[in-house]
Amino acid sequence: MTPDSQARPSIAKRMLVMIGGVVLLIALIAGIKVWLVMRTIASLPKPSPATVSTTTVRYQNWQPRLSAVGTLRAVRGADLAFDVPGLVQNVALQSGQRVAAGQLLVRLHDADDVAQLHQLEAAAHLATLNFRRARRQVAANAISTADYESAESNMTSRQAAVAEQQALIAKKHLRAPFAGRAGIITINPGDYLPAGTPVVTLQQLDALYIDFDMPQRELGRLAIGQRVRLAIDAFTGQSFAGQITAIEPRVNTDTRNIRVEARIPNPNEKLFPGMFAEVQVEVGAQQRYLTLPQAAIVYNPYGDTVFVVQRTDRHNEQGEPALPTVQQTLVTTGDTRGDQIAVTHGLNRGAEVVTSGQLKLKNGAEITIDNSVQPADAAHPRPQER
Predict the structure, then answer these.
(1) Domain range annotation of the chain
(2) Looking at residue 77, what is its pLDDT?
(3) Measured between alpha carbons, how far is 178 from 201 in angstroms, rounded to an integer?
(4) Is 66-73+203-282 CATH 2.40.30.170?
(5) Which of 120, 150, 171, 348 has the most Cβ atoms closer than 10 angstroms to its Cβ?
(6) Distance (Å, rounded) from C-alpha 206 to C-alpha 98?
């Protein structure tokens, strides 16, 4: 055997030993690294349970309602103005005054017109006397029929002129066309008013109409006589009841909505025309639903879910009662009412459900419950300034 053949096995053996040593060293380093990582993880503090608020699922009676936004309108209301121009002679009205139907409100200067009326009345009186004389004469065949007819025509013409002048004078007397409350009047004697200039608004306030629009798909649920309730931001916590009195017999082709009119009694005259109001129309019979605050629902593309609280009698390693956990559950939701939502499937009465803090939860997560602050759960919420 040559020296070269003896050297080759020893070189290969040393290479194997060296590779094995490197592998062992790498394994040792990796093991130490894993041990350090595990030790670091073990030393980290355990995450604290998420703090959430909860509520109990319960039944509530709901009156089905349709919601809309409307504007109040006077049953009778008008902006009064003169048909003719003239100078204001007398203002027999104070701002905000209640007036009776036919009451004189404002008078324009009409002395010239009254004088002209007296002249016309005198001429009409003379024409009447001439006609009576002609009637006696024609009966005695003292005048011709043509003269009699001329006297009659003259009398009629004079009387028409008197009526025309009386109408002109009446146009210079602004009277209330109906009983109501006057608005603010700013004109004074001596002011010149062109024809058609608004003088004062007059509104009858003992009852009002409210006009609002509803989608055409709701037409089958609307009927004359249905009760409506109004909520107005000027009167927080109050509602005003009325009834539907008319439904427009056509649908607006631009919006595909239908106009609805309701009458609202207003005995205390709290409500004014032009006010904005939220309208609730009561439709159908009352329904009984399981309800939750809308904040309790987690909306997902694959379905709506809630987190149901699971309580247990077990104890932890320290002997303390185990914290409750949560279980995510699919639900089917229905109508909404204010801050509330109806749950038609997926929950039973009395179940405890998380209402806030869901983003921090997953199935089986431990929780602590703090119900000192709860999400909104009002059937008819009202805006509040804070």
Answers:
(1) 50-64+287-369, 66-73+203-282, 110-171
(2) 92
(3) 12
(4) yes
(5) 120
(6) 12
DSSP 47: P
Q: Is 196 left (phi over 0), alpha (psi -120 to 50) or beta?
A: left
Where is 13: in which H helix or E strand? Answer: helix 3-43
**CA–CA distances in Å: residue 50 to residues 43, 166, 355:** 21, 87, 13
Lookup result for tokens 């909860």: 54
Are 80 and 187 a contacting pair, CB within 8 Å?
no
Q: At what angle do helices 111-139 and 145-171 cross, to 10 degrees?
A: 160
Cα–Cα distance for residue pair 30/38, rounded to 1 Å: 12
Q: Could you report the per-residue pLDDT of 169-224, keeping only the tens digit for each?
A: 999 999 999 999 999 999 999 999 999 999 999 999 999 999 999 999 999 999 99
Give the Cα separation of 293 and 369 in Å (integer): 17
Domain 110-171: CATH architecture, name and number where available = Orthogonal Bundle (1.10)
> pTM of the entire structure?
0.64
Cα–Cα distance for residue pair 208/276, rounded to 1 Å? 13
Angle at 346 between CA 344 and CA 349, to 5 degrees: 75
2.40.420.20, 3.40.50.11030, 2.40.260.10, 1.10.10.10: which CATH number matches 50-64+287-369? 2.40.420.20
Residues of the chain with pLDDT under 50: 1, 385-386
- For residue 92, the number of C-alpha atoms closer than 13 Å in the C-beta half-sphere is 14
Query: If we measure between CA atoms, which residue out of 56, 46, 41 comes closest to residue 365?
Result: 46
The tens digit of pLDDT for each residue in 41-93 reads: 766 666 678 899 999 999 998 888 888 999 999 999 999 999 999 999 999 99
Place of tokens 């002209």: 116
In sequence order, what DSSP letters do the residues of 81-127 get, joined into one string?
E-SS-EEEEEE---TT-EE-TT-EEEEE--HHHHHHHHHHHHHHHHH
